[in-house]
């Protein structure tokens, strides 16, 4: 490649890939495969995502010296690959240096590591806790020179705050900014990222390429959707969301252009790149839940999953997600009827399993429940029947599912929604049993919306069938735990549209009781829901992890004390 060509045209591949935390050898192999793919597409440079070799977020793995050494060895080996004359690489890895342990990237070309850059602005809010394990870079570092082009490489949070890193890089002579990211999903996050980058483009006058990780990591979903904003503040390219891909983008130097702030004599324009459509609302949420379940099961080595299929909406959508994520042959659905299980529920559960094509077993729980009740007769003598006896049904079901899990190595999918988990409408060691919950961060009305959406759409990458997979009768009937005669959820809870709005005010928006009541809600109902939310904290601490969909999920984002006497008196 001639120097003139290198200076005027730059083909940058963005590797939007799905690493696994701790699988350093596997992540290196994935990076090598992506670089080979990019080379076949004619790329000059491959941009990987934040901490790619480690997987993101590595959390306290960073405190293990052996892990840091493995990551650095992988970085050195990958840098050595560039001696073949193919594309240079920018890839994320933790690095331990005299100044501390840093969230870093290495820049390599020609078989050598030519530069390292360290993250300066460490996030310590919401799902992020990087100050626990990393030290900020000791100083602002300038651009790197890649084949005659000066590249600025801020890392993720470095462009999210107001610390002026992009502007400083522009003033130091950078011509393009390449940003490796590990930005998790919530609904509408793509627009948020676009606005963050546009704000920085206005400040620095340079095009910015935003490469984002893909894949599920415990509760977090990284949705990809990598993109670039040109110096003219328009979308230069947009990669797909929820899909692993390597895209080569072509950038040309426009010698008539100038940086907006007059800091560069030339400007770079993207002349070729993808322009993918980003899914919205229900589709995006459903695909996030599907990706999260698939990666949790596969990355943790489970061959298949099992869930209790009750004939209700929550277990039905979880069954649909499991079949879409893993395939019908990897789901076993189990109906566990008792004396209060209606004929409708038996029929609806069977219809749902048949529509999805999964294995369906019926395991009655009459004998184990009656056995528990008989065993406790003397101890409970003189007391009234109530929630204790109801919960024995749920706990018998949970025990059966865990027995199937132990016997066949299947992970139990737990099926409680965010509305129930918020107010404690769930049974510890019963319906809360399980390894992962794909709808843990979906309120009940969102569950209904996603179910209706799935009945008329098949998301890309889904392994399940088209058509109605959640029988309409499940969607239309009043929800019930069926633990006593003629029971419905609304016997114990406000109507779900009311409950969900109050909960969103309390959880996502941290609103006060007076403020919520001013929206038209009954004050006594708001106060009761707030009380239920607080006293259920001990249950949530023992709940299975689940996909983060909202801006504030239980666990990573919202950390309240279990012992807590505060109530908002207004």
Automatic annotation (TrEMBL):
<feature type="binding site">
    <location>
        <position position="391"/>
    </location>
    <ligand>
        <name>deamido-NAD(+)</name>
    </ligand>
</feature>
<dbReference type="InterPro" id="IPR000132">
    <property type="entry name" value="Nitrilase/CN_hydratase_CS"/>
</dbReference>
<dbReference type="Pfam" id="PF02540">
    <property type="entry name" value="NAD_synthase"/>
</dbReference>
<feature type="active site" description="Proton acceptor">
    <location>
        <position position="50"/>
    </location>
</feature>
<protein>
    <recommendedName>
        <fullName>Glutamine-dependent NAD(+) synthetase</fullName>
        <ecNumber>6.3.5.1</ecNumber>
    </recommendedName>
</protein>
<feature type="binding site">
    <location>
        <position position="125"/>
    </location>
    <ligand>
        <name>L-glutamine</name>
    </ligand>
</feature>
<feature type="binding site">
    <location>
        <position position="415"/>
    </location>
    <ligand>
        <name>ATP</name>
    </ligand>
</feature>
<dbReference type="GO" id="GO:0003952">
    <property type="term" value="F:NAD+ synthase (glutamine-hydrolyzing) activity"/>
</dbReference>
<comment type="similarity">
    <text>Belongs to the NAD synthetase family.</text>
</comment>
<keyword id="KW-0436">Ligase</keyword>
<comment type="pathway">
    <text>Cofactor biosynthesis; NAD(+) biosynthesis; NAD(+) from deamido-NAD(+) (L-Gln route): step 1/1.</text>
</comment>
<feature type="domain" description="CN hydrolase">
    <location>
        <begin position="10"/>
        <end position="253"/>
    </location>
</feature>
<dbReference type="InterPro" id="IPR003010">
    <property type="entry name" value="C-N_Hydrolase"/>
</dbReference>
<dbReference type="GO" id="GO:0005737">
    <property type="term" value="C:cytoplasm"/>
</dbReference>
<comment type="function">
    <text>Catalyzes the ATP-dependent amidation of deamido-NAD to form NAD. Uses L-glutamine as a nitrogen source.</text>
</comment>
<feature type="binding site">
    <location>
        <position position="539"/>
    </location>
    <ligand>
        <name>deamido-NAD(+)</name>
    </ligand>
</feature>
<feature type="active site" description="Nucleophile; for glutaminase activity">
    <location>
        <position position="156"/>
    </location>
</feature>
<dbReference type="InterPro" id="IPR003694">
    <property type="entry name" value="NAD_synthase"/>
</dbReference>
<dbReference type="GO" id="GO:0000257">
    <property type="term" value="F:nitrilase activity"/>
</dbReference>
<dbReference type="GO" id="GO:0008795">
    <property type="term" value="F:NAD+ synthase activity"/>
</dbReference>
<dbReference type="Pfam" id="PF00795">
    <property type="entry name" value="CN_hydrolase"/>
</dbReference>
<dbReference type="InterPro" id="IPR014729">
    <property type="entry name" value="Rossmann-like_a/b/a_fold"/>
</dbReference>
<dbReference type="GO" id="GO:0009435">
    <property type="term" value="P:NAD+ biosynthetic process"/>
</dbReference>
<keyword id="KW-0520">NAD</keyword>
<dbReference type="InterPro" id="IPR036526">
    <property type="entry name" value="C-N_Hydrolase_sf"/>
</dbReference>
<feature type="active site" description="For glutaminase activity">
    <location>
        <position position="119"/>
    </location>
</feature>
<keyword id="KW-0547">Nucleotide-binding</keyword>
<dbReference type="InterPro" id="IPR014445">
    <property type="entry name" value="Gln-dep_NAD_synthase"/>
</dbReference>
<keyword id="KW-0067">ATP-binding</keyword>
<feature type="binding site">
    <location>
        <position position="189"/>
    </location>
    <ligand>
        <name>L-glutamine</name>
    </ligand>
</feature>
<feature type="active site" description="Proton acceptor; for glutaminase activity">
    <location>
        <position position="50"/>
    </location>
</feature>
<dbReference type="GO" id="GO:0005524">
    <property type="term" value="F:ATP binding"/>
</dbReference>
<feature type="binding site">
    <location>
        <begin position="308"/>
        <end position="315"/>
    </location>
    <ligand>
        <name>ATP</name>
    </ligand>
</feature>
<dbReference type="InterPro" id="IPR022310">
    <property type="entry name" value="NAD/GMP_synthase"/>
</dbReference>
<comment type="similarity">
    <text>In the C-terminal section; belongs to the NAD synthetase family.</text>
</comment>
<feature type="binding site">
    <location>
        <position position="183"/>
    </location>
    <ligand>
        <name>L-glutamine</name>
    </ligand>
</feature>
<feature type="binding site">
    <location>
        <position position="420"/>
    </location>
    <ligand>
        <name>deamido-NAD(+)</name>
    </ligand>
</feature>
<dbReference type="GO" id="GO:0004359">
    <property type="term" value="F:glutaminase activity"/>
</dbReference>
